[in-house]
Amino acid sequence: MWFAKKKEPEAKNYDPALWKPVVRCSICTGEQAAGFREIATGRFEEVMLIRDERDLARFLKKYGLETVTKEY
Question: Are the beta carbons of 22 and 69 closer than 8 angstroms?
Fold first, then answer.
């Protein structure tokens, strides 16, 4: 009970006409966050933290993407 594995939240569907999938990267710290940028306003909605290539692959698979752009 104490060490039960947390379930990963369900993937939300996104509208490609309104949202663009991106990985936001920090130049100073190297931290990376995957999420979606609203095309009209530029607002970024973070979905998950990217620590390694496996996290990036999980993000791509979760949303059915092949590639994602990086923004600094």
Answer: yes
Q: Report pLDDT for 13.
A: 80
Q: Of all helices (H) and strands (E), which one includes residue 37?
A: strand 32-38
Which residues of the chain register pLDDT less than 50?
none
Pairing outcome for strands 44-50 and 69-71: unpaired
Most distant CA atoms of the chain, gap in Å: 45
Alpha helix segments (H runs only) across the chain: 53-63
Q: How far apart are CA 67 and CA 65, in angstroms?
A: 6
CA-wise closest residue to 10 among 44, 50, 47, 56: 47
